[in-house]
Structure formats: C-alpha cells, structure tokens
Amino acid sequence: MHAEILRPVVVLIGWSLVMLAWVIATRLPAMRAAGVDLARLVGSKASDADAALPPHIQWKAHNYNHLMEQPTLFYAVCGVIALTGTGNGVNAWIAWAYVALRIAHSLVQTTVNRVQPRFMLFLASTLALAALTLHAALAVF
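^ that's the sequence the OP posted. Answer follows.
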C-alpha cells in the first residue's frame, strides 16, 4: 500500500507540466510577434524576455519558475513523510491543501497577478509546508 501523501505530489508535478505547456503556448507566439528569432538567440536570460515580451505573457513563465522553487521542498518533505509511514491522514490532507493553494496561486499570478491575494496564498501554502516539515521532523527524530 502506498502513502496517500504521494497523490498530491503527483498532482502538483502534473500541474507544473500544465504550466510549462501554457508557458510554451503563450511565449512562442509572443516571441514571434516581438521579432525574436530563436535560431539567433544566444545566451539569453530571464530579464531579456521580461524586456521583450508583454508582462501578461511573462506571468506564466514567472509562475512556472516559482513552481520549481518552494515546491521542491514540498516534494522532499512528502518523500520523508511517505518513507516514515506517516503519509496518510492529516499529513495527506495538509499536502492536498498545499497543492490546492499552489494551484490557486498559479491561477492568480497567471491571470490578474494581484500581489495581495498572491501573497496570501503563498503565505498559507508556506504554513502548510511548515506543518508538513514539523510532522516529518517528529517522525524522524
């Protein structure tokens, strides 16, 4: 039997891939419209795209980058929780809350990009991550 906590892990990975597809689907046409030639592009960085592309296009890329940051801690702590046999019950529910909050954060950032609701969602998801980290620590120490 697997730990229930692995399900929200897989969902967040899947969501990250959805966001990557959205980045590609919006960014490539915007780059063409801006006259950016991928064949001639050498050694660019994120700030170059921020200068060349409309903000609402870049919001998706920024969010994808965010999904590659703090959620890596989520994946690690969920692995610890699953390995210690404590990945069911309350820990699974907290993990689902984390995933729901991160998806909501993505939707806010990629559409209206209002900082206050984004921050509140980020804060709430960080508290969920902190709770999972505490539970992992209790399981291993």
